[in-house]
User: Fold this.
Amino acid sequence: MSTPLREQTHLWQAPALGDVEMLHARYFQQRFAPHVHEGYVFTVIESGAQRFWHRGSEHLAPVGSMVLINPDELHTGATAHEAGWRYRGFYPEHARVTGVLEELELGRHGMPHFQQSVIQDPTLAAAFSQLHQLSESGASALEQQTAWRHAVLALVQRHGHGAQPRAPGNEPLAVARARELLESQLADPPSLESLAVAVNLSPFHFARVFRQATGLPPHAWLKQRRLGRARELLKRGMAAAEVAFALGFADQSHLSRQFKQAYGVTPGAYRTACLSL
Assistant:
């Protein structure tokens, strides 16, 4: 007699994203009875396949696809593959989605509505999957909030009823002030929303003008400055573990991975080479 495969679920709220509920699940036998959600449902199918009833007909969501359910729409869910299905799900309230659009002055079009139950959009699925992993791994609020806004805007523009945002303007003072704030708080950086408040711009508009001015989103610029500062401290003889702590890396191995990816050598090897000169 074979042992039933074990189902796995990880449900949490993402504080950086206004407590959006997220679920990472692997199901084999699970069958969802007809139900509704007050907010949206966006899921990315990571493996296997899901079948579900929605808007009066059956649908199949294969690996790599996304399922889109509007608020208050009745639907079910079950496996469509012998190995079950694994997915990453987002369950945002209305305001979490419409708020992104309002930041770009697109909220006048009302609450987005998605016509397709299943979409095939590899780039978008990858963006949502990466965002989900960022939240699950506890990435910085700065990185999560930026990724959330770009993913939601792309989703609405490609598959909902969304207008095009205006091109970002030139905001040199705002960008300079933001860089100063990030530079002064490398170990404990502010969130995207906190930065935007400090420079008197909406979060999404700020993220776009910052990228236009620097070539990088704020979290990526912060990463480069941390690594640059790490080099300075290592040159002075500070131990790698102390550098990691001083600059807000999760631990020494986190610093080592990023440092080697950027410079091709470990922090320890870099420190030793500098001190031997």
